[in-house]
Specification:
alpha+beta, Deoxyribonuclease I, Chain A, 5-stranded mixed beta sheet, 4-stranded mixed beta sheet, 26% helix
């Protein structure tokens, strides 16, 4: 599930309802001002864990939450454009999840490409899902 606009109370209630009713196991947020983090964490169940990639600013470009009752995740790598987590679920599935929020600039995306190549080589023996917004538009 990806969410935007959690500064509004009604939207936070929608997220909380969604998490409980549909048994979501991951939530992805982008461009979060950390001074608003208390608003966001108030709608996430206490049994969930999270990771974000806040650099030296007060904005986390990526913030991912997961249900600890379903997934066991640890931080493998993070940068301003990606968070990579090795994951294991209750059925013993093991893999790598990389969540991307790419730079608007080509030079930044080139750095992301190098990071992803390094992760790919190091963990080629595991299933790997790369998801998110690469901020690339192609026109013909």
């Amino acid at each position: 599930m990806e969410c935007r606009g959690l500064n509004k109370l009604a939207r936070r209630k929608d997220v909380a309802d969604h998490v409980f009713k549909l048994s979501s196991s991951f939530i992805l947020l982008t461009k979060v001002n950390l001074h608003n983090s208390h608003r966001i964490t108030s709608c996430i169940p206490h049994c969930w864990s999270s990771c974000y990639n806040c650099d030296c600013t007060n904005t986390a470009r990526i913030w991912v939450f997961w249900n600890q009752g379903i997934w066991s995740c640890t931080l493998l790598a993070k940068s301003s454009q990606q968070i990579t987590l090795p994951v294991i679920n209750q059925a013993s599935f093991q893999g790598i999840f990389t969540i991307v929020y790419g730079s608007n600039w080509q030079s930044g995306r080139q750095a992301l490409s190098k990071e992803l190549c390094q992760i790919s080589r190091a963990y080629a023996h595991l299933p790997w899902a790369v998801m998110g917004d690469f901020n690339i538009a192609r026109f013909r």
